[in-house]
Design goal:
The protein is mainly alpha-helical. The protein has two domains: about 50 residues, no CATH class; about 60 residues. The chain contains five helices and two strands. The protein has a two-stranded antiparallel ribbon with strand order 1-2. A hairpin with a 2-residue loop joins strand 1 and strand 2. The protein is rod-shaped. The chain starts with a helix and ends with a helix.
């Protein structure tokens, strides 16, 4: 088995291509030498472009040092999900703090209304603005 056959033999979808290549090779004996060499060079280039790239380890830079990242481990997966978890936790914390502040503000307003000299019904009275104006002058 030649180098060309070994490259084509490992893929079942290339059986048709192998049959075409054998047919072309059988008729090339009658062609001039220059044409046969050009065809051979083109076949080699086509096979070179068809080759699968070799998988090489990736060099990952970390500050001043470099390390090889050969595969994505469970630690890598946790490290990639961890920022999302921290972000979601931060958003929940912000929501809780704002809700607590709002409840505190409402409690302060309610406390001020209930401990004031006026009853709460007075704030709904149409003459309340007049009362405020008079009490402001009297002081």
């Amino acid at each position: 088995m030649t180098n060309t056959d070994s490259l084509l033999a490992h893929r079942p979808a290339d059986q048709f291509g192998r049959a075409v290549a054998m047919r072309l090779s059988s008729g090339s004996a009658e062609l001039p030498y220059e044409v046969r060499e050009r065809l051979r060079a083109m076949r080699v280039r086509a096979l070179e472009s068809r080759k699968m790239p070799a998988v090489a380890p990736v060099v990952v830079g970390r500050g001043a040092a470099a390390s090889l990242a050969l595969e994505r481990t469970w630690l890598y997966r946790i490290g990639s999900v961890l920022p999302l978890i921290v972000l979601a936790g931060g958003l929940v914390l912000i929501h809780l703090v704002q809700t607590d502040r709002r409840a505190t503000e409402l409690a302060e307003v309610d406390t001020a209304l209930l401990t004031d000299d006026l009853p709460p019904a007075a704030y709904a009275d149409p003459g309340f603005v007049q009362f405020l104006k008079q009490s402001g002058r009297g002081e």
